[in-house]
Structures
1.
Amino acid sequence: MISFSGVAVEKNGVGILRDIDLRITERRVGVIGRNGSGKSTFARLFNGIETPSRGKVEFEGAGTLKELRRHVGFVFQNPDNQIVYPLVSEDLEFGLKNLKLPKDEARRRIDEVLERFGLTHLRDRLTHQLSGGEKQMIALAGVLVMQPRMIVFDEPTTLLDLWNKRMLMKALNELEQSIVVVSHDLDLLQHFDRVLHFENGAIAGDGPPAQVIPLYIEKSQC
Ligand SMILES: Nc1ncnc2c1ncn2[C@@H]1O[C@H](COP(=O)(O)OP(=O)(O)OP(=O)(O)O)[C@@H](O)[C@H]1O
């Protein structure tokens, strides 16, 4: 469970997010809203990439940056922001080095994740030669090997074609972690447990997709 209590974010004197009071216990949560409504800023609070100007974010009662980073993984919209090493295998080992895992255990985790998502053939490839969809999956694999309890995705399907979008949606559905997905792709979120609708830096709608999404669409038609 992750909680936001009285959270506000301000930058250069400008209010970006305000009055965020939430407890998230659902397995699949979507985040929608117009461009500039504060979704990415909200998403980045989950694992401490962004810190609140006021209020606190806690994962099961622990709010230190170290705890948030340990429990919550973050998948960026553009995998180039996430993939740093020339070889896929090196990139996947990168985060695990910080955990100081024995080599065998690190290898086992990497093999398991690659195998599970049918990515084993990419293990020794150069990361800059991967397609956009392959990169997106390797970025997700890099987060999964860290075994976080929750994963936040910021617009994960924007760069993907229909095939890769389907592959990612299937992967999302099969994850045992709880997931939070920021997306303009309303189809992706229609079977989620809960959807948060942001408007001008605050939550304007919160509930099941069948309730929140139609109201959001209605507002866009005004
Ligand atoms: N450093 C900053 N200083 C001032 N304003 C900022 C800063 N960073 C972000 N903003 C503003 O905060 C608002 C929210 O940005 P955010 O990226 O969270 O929106 P978003 O809902 O994710 O948008 P999009 O759908 O376009 O990705 C935007 O108006 C943005 O211009």
2.
Amino acid sequence: MAMRKSERAGRSPTVGGAQVFDCHPASRTRSVRLRPEIRKAVMDNKETSHPAQPNVEQALGAFSLLREYFQGALIVDDRARITWIDQRYRELLGLPDDFDCYGLPVEQVIPHSLMRRVVETGRPILVDIMEFDERQLVVCRIPLKDNAGSVNGAIGFVFYDRVDYLAPILEKFEHLRKQLSRAQAALTRERATKYSLQSFVGTSDAVRDLKAQVRRFALRDGAALLSGETGTGKELLAHAIHQQSDRADGPFVAVNMAAVPEALLEAEFFGVAPGAYTGADRKARKGKFELAHGGTLFLDEIGDMPIAIQAKLLRVLQEGEIEALGSNAVKKVDVRIIAATSQDLVAKVDDRSFRADLYYRIAVLTIAVPPLRDRLEDIQVLCDALLEKTPRASDQRGWVIEPEAVALLQHHDWPGNVRELANVLERAAAMAPSEIIGAELIRSALPARHGVSPGARPGTSAAALSTRLADAERDAILEALEACGGQKQAAAKTLGISRSQFYEKLKRYGIAG
Ligand SMILES: Nc1ncnc2c1ncn2[C@@H]1O[C@H](COP(=O)(O)OP(=O)(O)OP(=O)(O)O)[C@@H](O)[C@H]1O
């Protein structure tokens, strides 16, 4: 390959016996500071002898036509170690003149390099955007082959800012990258406030003790069981435990046992191997265990877990391995289980509908979440916090709840706990003609079966109708539950709705499990 005069004047490292020339003379007079990670790489990993490499002259010759377009080039051998790099690329990377990177694994000089992938797969990556020190470089990577056609290395080119037609791509990429990092930052802020322990409102002694226990449990890594009536905040607390634990940077994945049809639970948990089912869904699907790897898996309503799945869950907890449906391969998973129940699990163990061995596995750390009726002094602060989140008209300054209204709420028994309180406040707010929520409004918003006639307070006719319909639905559900001796599945059947719809309605109306 013909070298330009300036190139010949440059430093000329020996590569496998051939003389190869760096081609940008300017940097020789510039002093560049060695980046700390590169300095470390030199100390730790430098190979003393230069590796075998592809024929550099031949490779550069093949791409000589591209020379005026690229602003840096690099060659690696079949083990992705640098065998040649030109001066312009060295400059772009900030490598000082006296730094010899020959023989170093490419990632130690260019952390995001994909040259290894090209060498390993033998497939080129023709256009890619690679980040280096907050800069975006457009790169092209091509495998090199020996005379017998085997891959013996790869060559990479960098196109930086001189290629005008790449500017729109880079601008768009940069724009999207900024948008993404803004969205990620907002999400992190939102998650942190939504799920922190501070968002569990309450100043009673019961809540103080509960929070102290949650903080202690967050520091440990064992399975935890939260028990308490529906709407007491078990899921909120599970999030808070995760957020305060060492797993906070890992995923938090929730499965509601009652909401997933029984036939799908196994696939939901353990995933599906490709082709496990004939027909449309032949693709592999990850299960919740795999999705929660490195984080926390929250199992809501664990008392509703079918006995066959209980046996499988126990095996995963004992062995730390999962096997996808239709697969023989096992995968290791590292997941913390936090389970929640609104049923009496000990009673379920006694009547053998819940496995004792599974109970002892998940009840390593147990937290009993108190019902709202046992901490009625929290109602004032809960009202303030919940109303803060309740939408209001743009000309309203903020909701004000009158003391008589709070007193009325403190006389209710709250079978649906905080969720029910939130619903009542939302209904009252929807009917309120101003930002003041008084006792009359609360009386109208409380469920009819507690002796208050729905719609007694004149609201809009639409609000009154929706309130009446909701109350009728709630009463039908309560009647069905009573008729079926509390058996939810049977009650759902009586009403002609699915188990998951039934549970959704129980939640909506704050009916305890
Ligand atoms: N102490 C609290 N402070 C503020 N909000 C709360 C509190 N407890 C519960 N909530 C709110 O009440 C609603 C129900 O809470 P959550 O879903 O955590 O209850 P749960 O016990 O898991 O209910 P279920 O057993 O029905 O699934 C959520 O909107 C939650 O944010």
3.
Amino acid sequence: MPTYPPGSAERKAIDEALVEMKKQMPFEVPCVINGKEIKTGNKLKQLTPDSVNTAPLCEYHAATPELVTEAIEGAVKVQKAWAATSWYDRATIFLKAAALVSGKYRNQLIAATMLGQGKNVWQADIDAIAELADFFKFSVKLVDDGYKNQPLITPDDAVNRIEYRPLEGFVLAVSPFNFTAIGGNLVTVPSILGGVCVWKPSPMATYANYLTHKILLEAGVPGSVIQFVPGDAPQIVDQCLSHRDFAALHFTGSTDVLRSLWTKIGSQMTTYRSYPRIIGETGGKNFHLIHKSADIKATVIHCIRSGFEYCGQKCSALSRLYIPRSLYEAGWLDEFVKQTKEIKVGPVTDHVNFTGPVINEASFDRILKLINQAKEEGGKILAGGSGDKSQGYFVEPTIILTEDPHSLTMKKEVFGPVVTAYVYEDDKWAETCDLIDNTTDYALTGSVFSNDRAALAEASELLRNAAGSLGSGTNDKSGTWAHFSRFVSARTIKENFGADPTDFRHPSNLA
Ligand SMILES: NC(=O)c1ccc[n+]([C@@H]2O[C@H](COP(=O)([O-])OP(=O)(O)OC[C@H]3O[C@@H](n4cnc5c(N)ncnc54)[C@H](O)[C@@H]3O)[C@@H](O)[C@H]2O)c1
Ligand SMILES: N[C@@H](CCC=O)C(=O)O
């Protein structure tokens, strides 16, 4: 990945792309149904969260119920033909999409992700280029490997094979704002297998998602295979979930939303042709557990990057921090606070800013409310604690020290630049692992920092269920065949070519 140092060609190129994009804002984003761009006239806005008083990044046309019906019907109609397209052709399309992401559309995708989702160039590149292109390429490799999972034994008089059929009906992909790549992956996984999708993007990632869709179509995905349907989330999603041909929900976003959609699907089971599948990843409450043997300098840097890059708006962002008393007394927290106060926060177009805005006003207000509640509960604010939304939604990187390991911000997902620290006694390593395991229902990600192998092994054992998506989704891990397997129905086919039978009786039936 390019590193964008001052004076580099890559920094110059991205600066030019940003200037060009700003000149053209607001872009007009249509619905794209059966490959046709459709403007409904019902326009909504995607703002630039770091400069809210300027022109929006885009105005997008919200899909009407009639268009959603057209999208579903168009997708279902093309499904058999797409499934019959050879694996070679499907694979090549996604490899071409990867090349378009890292080549022709590179700077445009980065600029759209920076301006629309408030990422600085480093964060935008790892998301919209590195991860998105990887998703496309890994998908080809993983499906290729998956298709090779065939019966182990082939007898002399028969051939057995397994065919991995895509789901009948359409997949509804509902994507979050915080990763351009995730939207791309949610539609790629079902469609690379020969399935069809209706894609409802996040309102706060509409433009980058529209570009991703454009890339997929340019690479050769037929227009009806992935339908781009922005607009009112509950209206579009409810309509899709109420359709007889609804085959699966592919979701990434918050826990409450997935739970409500799951409940809706469950309550409508008699509507469907089949048993819809639900594949969803949701919130997290990432812990960092520091052992007394850990290096202070390195762990402080890891915690700063994990907690505050992209304003903590990652499901995997550090949120609860466990520091041993000995390192606390050796100045671990002082160093963490000192460096946190050095973080530059501001518009993402100024590269010195390590972090930018949070995504919108609702998020800004929610985060500051949580900080205030933490204060009222007795939490001590060691850094940050406030914000300013006059120009953009800027929240100061915030460190809260708590004496209560079950306090609000140790339990609830904040999804903002807020780290709550708790000091544990060095000799309570196992007890602290149990505490981490039992503090929240989330169990998405976590890290243990130690130079003591025995402590690592013990933590790995005790924290087995505290990370790895358990409790945070259906745990169909991206980057594994297990994820793809949720979007196929296996069919076993046996061809016999042994001698024809001459008697229906077996030897065991003879008198
Ligand atoms: N586990 C992961 O891999 C992962 C990755 C990224 C984000 N996340 C989680 O996503 C959340 C942040 O993303 P977000 O703010 O975009 O999440 P969100 O739940 O607000 O929105 C996700 C999607 O659901 C749609 N949606 C929202 N309300 C809806 C409703 N009532 N009915 C139908 N659709 C609705 C949105 O328009 C969006 O497309 C965090 O909780 C984060 O932890 C998880
Ligand atoms: N791949 C992402 C996960 C996305 C969560 O929001 C990461 O950077 O950890």
